[in-house]
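Support request, please re-run this one:
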Amino acid sequence: VQLQASGGGLAQAGDSLRLSCAASGRTFTNAVLGWFRQAPGKEREFVADITWNLGTTNYADSVKGRFTISRDKAKNTVDLQMNTLKPEDTAIYYCAARRSLSGRYIWWGQGTEVTVSS
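Re-run finished. Output below.
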C-alpha cells in the first residue's frame, strides 16, 4: 500500500485547511486509514481515523468538532478537513493505514506540513 499526502500549508488561527491522502496498491476490505501528526519536539499523536468499508470515524479529543475525516472510495482518497485551526495544530501530518481495527498502522505516507499562526 502506498500513501501520498498533500494539502498542507500556512494558515492563520481560525482558518481552514484540507489534507488529502491518496492510497494505491493492494486494498483490504476492513482497512482503516488514519491521520497522525507530530509537532516540533513532541511525539507523534493520533488525530483521526476512518474504516474504509463502513466509514466509521474516530477522533482525538483535541480535534473533535473541528476536524472531519472522510473517504472517497471511487478516488481511493482519505481527506481531513480542518476547521477553526489553532496554533497548536501546527505539525507535520501523516496519513497511515492498517489492515483492520485490530491491527497496527504499518503503512505510512510522507508527511505534509501544517503551520498555523496566531
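DSSP finds no helices and eleven strands in the chain. The radius of gyration is 13 Å.
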